[in-house]
């Protein structure tokens, strides 16, 4: 299966700026969390999305609040691309009462159902059936919404991959399965763990379209997602898109990444960076000026600083919150 | 107006009324309609579940709301979780509770926890109906009573009805409850007949039903074992002992007050639970009374449960596995200190 390359397409100026801003927000948010975590300030553990920005942004560029996404343990990028509030996200990662989930979910469970963000998920493979359920609601209520299931290469070997995609396919649900193949499930290479060359090859078994795209090329992701989402909205059922990508950090913060070679890391972090490539694209195609891009970068930096400040100055939840929201009524 | 109908018919009626009342109520599961896409099959000939409990619903509500699923519990139970969280009110049928092994994540880590993990910004109005219970000669993987497993998990509600009337009212309450509910149906009760009111009614959760009043001994029994307890109570009455039989009806929430008040009156407690004994609901209720009602007790608490073994297939062994009125009587004799109670 050939890797689909981006062709010349017309992004509106507005959309282009939005995409660049979201990619910057994700990168700067994650770099900041990396820095804060290394100071030992954050409780628990975090999985960073830096390096994979083109996937979340290229897909979510087509979505509105009425559309749903399910996410993974590496979910910060999906949240930002789905317009979750970064102050609330940062506060959540700090375990503060002002967090999007009032400090009860943490990094692995950030959610904002009002934005269609059905949650990061601590269970690898957890998202497949959940996206199917959101797609079922969309179909039965005829809302025109779609559900996107982001998942990693590790999840593609999980049983729920099969059950979820098969269900979406037989019921022709408006679901888009987006594999983020970053090459490693924790420290285990994709090639070792998966019997297929491409995750997208598995689409054939469900009689649905499967497509491999360069996950470092936000335009390529944008185009593939556009095709899949149109298909879904037209009632033609699910699509499986595999984005070949790379995570700049380890599986979790503190991972020494001994399984990655130095050459590989340098190649991805320096030559193949999705944000650098998109920046060039925007300038060459005169979609943004150097000044506009610099302004975005600076305003994002300020917003992330503000988010940290907000989180650090927010109160922790109190004892009375412990038993709240276990049930609607009990 | 009350009529005499079966436990199974009462459940069917509850689902029919719920689906008429709210178009967002859907039913999904393996063969809940049956025979999907088979050209020659008329809807009235379709199975309606392996035991026929959902028979006829597809005729009235169509295949868009009565959805046959592949045999893929993780897939469709998980889908039901977010279908609930995004605006539907699904009834998902997990054919046998023993199959939870294939979809425990979706129930334990997703359905039960979404609301709490999301800081109260989600609700999951999902009902999972599931068959349980031994005595059907269905062997080890189709006969368990796993309600303790779910009662252990915060975020889930657990319902175990013992009569047709309770089954209908509790199922309607489950479907219109905004939290995920695991609703247990004992497969050996489906043909049991009882008086059931017509029309829509609900039975609130966390309210135990005192099935029989008495001052000498409290018997708390779960599901089908309520009837074992009532049989034992009838024999005890002949021997001058008045037993109070309490059916908690919902294990989560649990009506602690009714149990404790009864033990305060009688001073003696037997719990009858056909599940395996370790970490069971019987153990939980016993611990409750030992903790909060120790001073009321005149004798040790007794638990009549299955032994710590899988459900055996052979009728000769399965009959030994289950609680019986005789086992209850022996326990009663021991804690009352009157060996004449035990039938000869």
UniProtKB/TrEMBL annotation, chain A:
It comes from the Bacteria. Coiled coil: none annotated. CDD domains: TPP_E1_PDC_ADC_BCADC. One of its GO terms (biological process) is pyruvate decarboxylation to acetyl-CoA. Its cofactor is thiamine diphosphate. Residues 22-318 form the Dehydrogenase E1 component domain. This is Thiamine pyrophosphate-dependent dehydrogenase E1 component subunit alpha. It comes from Geobacillus zalihae.
Automatic annotation (TrEMBL), chain B:
Pfam families: Transket_pyr, Transketolase_C. Keywords: Oxidoreductase. Residues 5-192 form the Transketolase-like pyrimidine-binding domain. It comes from the Bacteria. InterPro entries: THDP-binding, Transketo_C/PFOR_II, Transketolase-like_Pyr-bd, Transketolase_C. Signal peptide: none annotated. One of its GO terms (molecular function) is oxidoreductase activity. This is Alpha-ketoacid dehydrogenase subunit beta. It comes from Geobacillus zalihae. The lineage of its organism: Bacteria, Bacillati, Bacillota, Bacilli, Bacillales.
């Amino acid at each position: 299966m050939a890797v689909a390359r981006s062709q010349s397409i017309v992004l509106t100026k507005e959309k282009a700026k939005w995409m660049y801003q979201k990619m910057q927000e994700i990168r700067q948010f994650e770099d900041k969390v990396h820095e804060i975590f290394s100071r030992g300030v954050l409780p628990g553990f975090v999985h960073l999305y830096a390096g994979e920005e083109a996937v979340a942004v290229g897909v979510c560029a087509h979505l509105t609040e009425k559309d749903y996404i399910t996410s993974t343990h590496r979910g910060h990028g999906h949240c930002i691309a789905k317009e979750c509030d970064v102050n609330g996200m940062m506060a959540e990662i700090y375990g503060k009462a002002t967090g999007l989930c009032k400090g009860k979910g943490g990094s692995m469970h950030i959610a904002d159902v009002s934005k269609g963000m059905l949650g990061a998920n601590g269970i690898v493979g957890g998202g497949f059936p959940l996206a199917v359920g959101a797609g079922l609601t969309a179909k039965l209520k005829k809302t025109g919404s779609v559900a996107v299931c982001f998942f990693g290469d590790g999840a593609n070997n999980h049983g729920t991959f099969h059950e979820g995609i098969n269900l979406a396919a037989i019921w022709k649900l408006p679901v888009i399965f987006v594999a983020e193949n970053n090459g490693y499930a924790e420290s285990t290479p994709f090639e070792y763990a998966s019997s297929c060359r491409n995750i997208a090859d598995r689409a054939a078994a469900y009689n649905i379209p499967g497509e491999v795209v360069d996950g470092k090329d936000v335009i390529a992701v944008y185009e593939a997602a556009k095709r899949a989402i149109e298909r879904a909205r037209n009632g033609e059922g699910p699509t499986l898109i595999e984005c070949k990508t790379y995570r700049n950090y380890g599986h979790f913060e503190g991972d020494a990444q001994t399984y990655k070679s130095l050459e590989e890391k340098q190649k991805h972090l320096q030559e193949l960076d999705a944000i650098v490539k998109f920046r060039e694209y925007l300038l060459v195609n005169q979609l943004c000026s150097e000044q506009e891009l610099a302004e975005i970068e600076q305003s994002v930096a300020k917003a992330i600083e503000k988010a940290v400040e907000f989180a650090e100055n927010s109160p922790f939840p109190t004892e009375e919150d412990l038993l709240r929201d276990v049930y609607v009524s009990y | 107006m009350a009529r005499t109908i079966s436990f199974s018919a009462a459940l069917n009626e509850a689902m029919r009324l719920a689906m008429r009342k709210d178009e967002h109520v859907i039913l999904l599961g393996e063969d809940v309609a049956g025979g999907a896409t088979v050209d020659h099959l008329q809807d009235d000939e379709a199975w309606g579940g392996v035991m026929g409990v959902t028979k006829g619903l597809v005729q009235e509500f169509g295949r868009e709301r009565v959805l046959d699923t592949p045999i893929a519990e993780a897939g469709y139970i998980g889908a039901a979780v977010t279908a609930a969280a995004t605006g539907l009110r699904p009834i998902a049928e997990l054919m046998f509770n023993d199959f939870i092994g294939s979809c425990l994540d979706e129930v334990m880590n997703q359905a039960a926890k979404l609301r709490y993990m999301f800081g109260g910004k989600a609700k999951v109005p999902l009902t999972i109906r599931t068959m349980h219970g031994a005595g059907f000669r269905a062997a080890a993987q189709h006969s368990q009573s796993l309600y303790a497993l779910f009662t252990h998990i915060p975020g889930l509600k657990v319902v175990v009805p013992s009569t047709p009337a309770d089954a209908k009212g509790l199922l309607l309450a489950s479907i219109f409850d905004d939290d995920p509910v695991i609703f247990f149906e004992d497969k050996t009760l489906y043909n049991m007949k009882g008086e059931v009111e017509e029309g829509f009614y609900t039975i609130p959760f966390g309210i135990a039903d005192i099935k029989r009043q008495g001052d000498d001994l409290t018997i708390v029994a779960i599901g089908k074992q309520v009837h074992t307890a009532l049989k034992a109570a009838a024999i005890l009455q002949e021997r001058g002992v008045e037993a109070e039989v309490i059916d908690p009806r919902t294990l989560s929430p649990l009506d602690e007050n009714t149990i404790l008040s009864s033990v305060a009156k009688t001073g003696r407690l037997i719990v009858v639970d056909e599940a395996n004994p370790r970490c069971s609901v019987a153990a939980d209720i016993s611990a409750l009374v030992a903790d909060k009602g120790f001073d009321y007790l005149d004798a040790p608490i007794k638990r009549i449960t299955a032994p710590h073994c899988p459900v055996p297939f052979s009728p000769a062994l399965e009959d030994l596995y289950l609680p019986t009125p005789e086992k209850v009587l022996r326990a009663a004799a021991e804690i009352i200190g009157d060996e004449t109670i035990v039938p000869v």
